[in-house]
């Protein structure tokens, strides 16, 4: 299995599981899921919305992409070119996605 090493982490983050109704420490998170229930971890990074981290291949056009700057942008198309995933982002250019990098999305 590919190890996902690269993650764009925002300065100060707090983690929460909505299913368990509790704050999570980093030890309670594996692959950005709660180790107790395996649900997606909600991340409060001090941005205008909370976020979550997804694998590049799990991102769909229903996700809202979060730029490293903390801006939220709608994705209108997810595509693949020569095995590489890319996102077409509304009001922006095409964004090539590294396949070993976690993707910051709006939590929903
Ligand atoms: Zn949980």
Automatic annotation (TrEMBL):
Name by which UniProt lists this protein: Uncharacterized protein
Species of provenance: Mesobacillus foraminis
